[in-house]
Amino acid sequence: MTAKPAHTHKKKMEEKRKMAGLFRHIAAALLFLLTAASTAGASTYYASDPNLGSARVVFQLNHGDIEFGFFPHVAPKTVEHIFKLVQLGCYNTNHFFRVDKGFVAQVADVMGGRKAPMNKEQEQQAEKSIVGEFSTVKHVRGILSMGRYSDPDSASSSFSILLGDAPHLDGQYAVFGRVTKGDDTLRKLERLPTHKEGIFVMPIERIEILSTYYYDIDVESCEAEKSILKRRLSESASEVERWRRKCFA
Questions:
Q1: Contact 78, 70 (CB under 8 A)
Q2: Read out DSSP for 15-84?
Q3: Do 210 and 60 form a contact (C-beta atoms < 8 A)?
């Protein structure tokens, strides 16, 4: 049997390395697209809800993330106020002071719940009270509802995430959004040890909001980027096919 020349073997090996590199490129691109599609699907889980807008907020806790969207047509003043607090970073280092399994997980008022001191702009926004925007939207699991005192117009920055259905709250507290991702995190919170102080069921450990961020699911640039990536993926697939035919012909 005649041995193949060394330079031919070297060339073949180089072609295989290039082909492997292209496959890795395609695999990475596919993974990115699948992740993007999965994220988009999760972000629009409640897309059929006509009340839900396109803005999303993410609270990053020491037990996982919770993402929620707003109902701008149901409670416009409340949504504007809470979103402004998020944009100013007011909820960073705040915490959930109440976790009542099957009922609510409640975020503390930022004026007293944060660890970090507030700047002047944050204080001015946090001190505002919002008129009670009560609606017919039902209090069911995942709904966001403003906390308040006996005065119906005393809501400020504390709000609850419903952990179950609570029809006795309907029409009494302002509903302004709902959770879109992170029910697994809520279930983790419900499993934490608690103690009771008066009417409140409170976690023994501090459930901290480490940081927050926001984005819009309708931003066109995201779609443009995915379109470019799909085109590059198609081009790479064509190149791999050319290499495959050349190497194995």
A1: no
A2: HHHHHHHHHHHHHHHHHHHHHHHHHHHHHTTTTT-TT--SEEEEEEEBTEEEEEEE-TTTSHHHHHHHHH
A3: yes
Query: What CA–CA distance (Å, rounded) separates 145 from 78?
Result: 10
CB-CB contact of 212 with 56 (8 Å): no
Residue 18: its pLDDT value, please?
56
Q: How many residues does the chain have?
A: 249
* pTM across the whole model: 0.71
- pLDDT for position 4: 47
Is 8 buried (19+), middle (13-18) or exposed (0-12) by CB count in 10 A?
A: exposed
SS3 call for 95: strand
Amino acid at 135: S
The whole-angstrom separation of Cα 90 and Cα 60 is 13
186 near 161, Cβ under 8 Å?
yes
Residue 119: its pLDDT value, please?
Answer: 95
- Scanning the structure block, which residue is given the tokens 């073949």? 12
pLDDT digits (tens, 9 = 90+) for 218-232: 875 555 555 666 665
Tens-digit pLDDT profile for residues 120-142: 999 999 999 999 999 999 999 99
Sequence letter at residue 201:
V
What is the number of helices (H) and of strands (E) in the chain? 6, 10
- Alpha helices, DSSP H, located in 133-215: 183-190
